[in-house]
Design goal:
It is a single chain. The protein is an all-alpha fold. It has one domain (about 5-80). About 75% of the residues lie in helices and about 0% in strands. The chain contains four helices and no strands. The protein is elongated and about 45 Å long.
């Protein structure tokens, strides 16, 4: 397995999984919370594109960073805005 070739695909699939996770927040977050999640996730697309060009073997880290951002947005939504299931 060559991480230079498979890394970008793992990164893209990871962001697609994150998109599914963001859409699932409709169960407890208001519409503007889901849009906030989508905006944060969209910010990781240019990061992934840049990493694919510079160091493709490290691109699987981008979905992990997106997961951390998802947790952070959820924590803020639950703590400050009262998002409940």
């Amino acid at each position: 397995m060559k991480p230079e070739r498979s890394g970008p695909w793992v990164g893209v699939v990871g962001l697609v999984v994150m998109l599914w996770l963001v859409i699932s927040t409709t169960l407890y977050a208001p519409w503007w919370g889901v849009l906030l999640h989508l905006a944060v996730l969209a910010g990781f697309i240019p990061v992934l594109v840049r990493w694919v060009r510079r160091h493709p073997a490290s691109t699987p880290v981008v979905p992990l960073l997106a997961l951390l951002a998802w947790f952070a947005v959820n924590a803020m939504g639950v703590s400050f805005f009262g998002w409940r299931a």
